[in-house]
Design a protein that fits this description.
Blueprint (H helix, E strand, L loop, with lengths): L1 E2 L4 E2 L9 E5 L30 E6 L5 E6 L2 E16 L2 E13 L30 E12 L2 E8 L4 E3 L3 E2 L8 H77 L7 E6 L5 E6 L6 E10 L5 E9 H13 L7 H15 L4 H14 L3 H13 L5 E2 L12 H8 L4 E2 L9 H7 L4 H14 L4 E6 L4 E6 L7 E4 L2 E6 L22 E5 L7
Parallel strand pairs: 3-4, 16-17
Antiparallel strand pairs: 1-2, 4-5, 6-7, 8-9, 9-10, 9-11, 12-13, 13-14, 14-15, 18-19, 18-22, 19-21, 20-21
Length: 515
């Protein structure tokens, strides 16, 4: 920025190269957890992106210098000056010099050999845990939610878990004829009793009470017999109805007729389960999801994925090796995961395609149904290391974990593949964005996966005529769409994340017309 009090000129800065000079002593080089120097604490971060590799010269004393190439995170500049300026048409070249602060990441690589036992059909490959299984022993505690009830059970180690929500039998059916008969009886009695009550109630009251008691006592055995007889009939009716309903289910849905293991429940309506395939040794992980689009219209569908597909995708992600932590290497990672997983989500594609056909959705409404479904899944932070706040310098991660936010730690590269995400419904921004890119790209939408190192976030970009914030890529307008916040429409981002210069393309589609 150039200022002469009356006028201000703003320029876009681009740092082409840089050199850092420092001495190895406690005032200049320190571990980041010991804190940055006090003079840099009130300084704002330097927003202009620095080159991936900066030259670092460290003076070890006695004339000994060592040279490194580093990537500096969260740089701060103070006391800087601009000099050696050279003007060329509309461009100004020059040097920026001053005091700089930041931190670098250092990784210690270890090879750990783990013996893995074979898993059985119906169980996902995940983190290795001690042998632990659910029992049928109840603790005696129950919870109710409307017409649904669930019981608490014991694990094999004595800890507890809640079982699935089960629907209770409904209320008695309404009987119009029964109600009409009751009204007529009350009206008839009213015609007889009202004149008596008004004129001579004190004379007849003792006789009415006496004969009423005699009448009830005389009818008691018959009343008990009547109630017992109808109770037995009701039990027989329930048994026959349940038997016929079970037979109908078997013949109408043979794939789901085998045993089901319910392992998780989001609510009384949304249920997750593992279904054993009738004609194979494979199983299906199934999540019933109910969500609303941006017009408050309700949709429901099952997010189904094969257990074998989850295993294969898990192995593919864990065997991929990154040579460095650069943006290009990250792009290679998500590209490889997408290429491997896109053919393993066919059941998911069929579910969304069925919703489009049933509801006669155009392209824009179809995209909204897909994105709103993924936005509706509860957010879980996925981290490569543990879920302890003290492990991280990133302020968002520390605040989120300190507030007991849901976290899944120990996941290589801190991301789940689309197939794994559909199996466990555990995902943060980049996991969701990669899944949405894969699904929307399958339906030939023109989409891009966008990521920002500065904002440490990931969003989807889509080439549809929405209003709002967008990024221009190769002359085309991609509207930015947040994937983690429920009900957030396309083109809307918080102001602190809205500078599109800091959003980079991780993946981009083949730009065919939507199908």
């Amino acid at each position: 920025m150039k200022s002469d009090i009356l006028h201000e000129n703003f320029y876009d800065l681009e740092v082409l190269s840089g050199e850092i000079y420092t001495s190895k002593d406690r005032f200049h080089i320190r571990h980041w957890e010991s804190g940055e120097p006090e003079e840099f604490m009130p300084v704002e971060k330097f927003l202009t992106k620095l080159p991936e590799a900066l030259k670092l010269v460290v003076n070890y004393g006695k004339g000994e210098n060592k040279y490194y190439e580093i990537k500096l995170h969260e740089p701060k500049l103070s006391g800087y000056i601009l000099d050696a300026q050279l003007y060329e048409k509309d461009n100004v070249f020059g040097d920026i010099s001053g005091e700089i602060s930041g931190y670098i990441l250092h990784y210690d690589h270890q090879e750990i050999v783990i013996e893995v036992e074979n898993t059985i059909a119906g169980e996902m490959v995940g983190a290795i845990e001690p042998a632990l299984f659910k029992t049928d022993s109840r603790t005696g505690r129950t919870e109710t939610n409307g017409n649904y009830v669930r019981w608490e059970y014991f694990y094999s180690n004595g800890s507890t878990f809640w079982g699935a929500w089960l629907k209770q039998s409904g209320k008695d059916r309404f009987s119009f004829l029964g109600m009409l008969g009751g009204v007529l009886q009350i009206a008839f009695l009213a015609l007889l009793l009202v004149p008596i009550v008004l004129n001579a109630w004190y004379t007849f009251l003792p006789f009415v009470v006496f004969w009423g008691i005699i009448y009830l006592l005389s009818k008691l055995p018959m009343l008990l017999t009547f109630i017992w007889r109808w109770f037995l009939r009701a039990c027989l009716f329930v048994f026959v109805f349940s038997f016929l309903y079970g037979v109908i289910l078997i013949f109408s849905n043979p794939v789901n007729s085998s045993a089901r293991k319910i392992y998780d429940t989001d609510s009384a309506e949304e249920i997750s389960e593992i279904q054993i395939e009738a004609d194979s040794s494979d199983s299906i992980i199934s999540h019933l999801r109910i969500w609303r689009d941006y017009n408050s219209k309700e949709y429901s569908g099952r997010l189904n994925v094969l257990v074998s597909a989850c295993r294969a995708s898990n192995i593919n992600r864990n065997t991929f090796n990154l040579a460095s932590q650069s943006t290009d290497q990250y792009n290679d990672l998500v590209s490889a995961i997408h290429d491997f997983d896109r053919s393993r989500l066919n059941i998911i594609y069929e579910m969304f395609d069925s919703l489009r056909t049933t509801n006669n959705l155009d392209n824009m409404h179809f995209a909204e149904v897909i994105v709103s479904c993924i936005q509706d899944i509860p957010y879980t932070l996925v981290l490569e290391n543990g879920c302890e706040p003290d492990l991280y310098n990133d302020q968002f991660i520390r605040d989120y974990l300190n507030k007991n936010g849901k976290c899944e730690g120990g996941i290589k590269y801190g991301i789940f593949s689309p197939t794994e995400f559909m199996g466990n419904l555990i995902g943060d921004c980049d996991t969701r964005t990669l899944l949405l890119f894969t699904v929307l790209n399958h339906f030939k939408f023109d989409v891009a996966m966008l990521g920002s190192e500065l904002y440490r976030h990931s969003v989807i970009g889509i080439n549809l005529p929405y209003h709002g914030l967008a990024k221009i890529i190769d002359g085309k307008r991609y509207v930015i769409w947040e994937t983690t916040q429920q009900g957030l429409s396309p083109g809307i981002l918080p102001r602190e994340l809205s500078d599109t210069r800091y959003w980079n393309v991780n993946l981009i589609s083949n730009n065919q017309k939507p199908i």
